[in-house]
């Protein structure tokens, strides 16, 4: 009741014939309810007496004038219709509605552009990471190739060493044999 203004909510309800002129007069003009909160409370009491139809009219007026409260109350996003605005408030109301919609769309576009820029920045970072990882992969492949060549060289050197040891052993035996013969 603190956030709602009964002067905004009563015209639509009266148009829907949920409240009559006397109820509207009681809510808006009576000195019994000096502050807006009391007037809103009285309007809610009247609507409660009207049953389901009063509840539906209340939700429809909330949907137009207080979309954040409508979402909070129902958990749904408001679906505003221009024909309702034209019937209720005329061209000025439609202009105000359209300006509100333009503002909302601009904010949505702005947030979408920010999100897009964030995603592009993230994409650039990921692209740089990918390039760095590719460079590291090439370096690792080169290191692996060098390691493989060194292993092959080591195996070839080991085989050569064994061959030379055998040859040296054979020479030493022959030398020993020749020494013995002499």
Automatic annotation (TrEMBL):
Protein name as annotated = Caspase recruitment domain-containing protein 10
Query: Can you name one GO molecular function term for this protein?
Result: CARD domain binding
Q: Which InterPro entries match?
A: CARD, DEATH-like_dom_sf
Q: Which UniProt keywords apply?
A: Coiled coil, Phosphoprotein
> What residues does the CARD domain cover?
1-77
Is this entry keyworded Phosphoprotein?
A: yes
Please name the gene that encodes this protein: CAR10
Q: Which GO terms describe its biological process?
A: regulation of apoptotic process
Segments forming a coiled coil:
102-153
Q: Which GO terms describe its cellular component?
A: cytoplasm
Origin organism lineage? Eukaryota, Metazoa, Chordata, Craniata, Vertebrata
């Amino acid at each position: 009741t603190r956030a709602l203004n009964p002067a905004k909510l009563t015209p639509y309800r009266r148009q829907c014939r949920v409240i009559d002129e006397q109820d509207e007069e009681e809510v808006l003009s009576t000195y019994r309810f000096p502050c807006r909160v009391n007037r809103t409370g009285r309007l809610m009491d009247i609507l409660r007496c009207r049953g389901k139809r009063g509840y539906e009219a209340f939700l429809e007026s909330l949907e137009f004038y207080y979309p954040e409260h409508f979402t909070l109350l129902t958990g749904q996003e408001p679906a505003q219709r221009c024909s309702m605005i034209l019937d209720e408030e005329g061209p000025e109301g439609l202009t105000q509605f359209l300006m509100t919609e333009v503002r909302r769309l601009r904010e949505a576009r702005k947030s979408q552009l920010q999100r897009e820029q964030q995603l592009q920045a993230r994409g650039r970072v990921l692209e740089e990471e990918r390039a760095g990882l590719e460079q590291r992969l090439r370096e690792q492949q080169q290191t692996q190739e060098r390691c493989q060549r060194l292993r092959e060289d080591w195996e070839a050197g080991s085989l050569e060493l064994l061959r030379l040891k055998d040859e040296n052993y054979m020479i030493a035996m022959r030398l020993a044999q020749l020494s013995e013969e002499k």
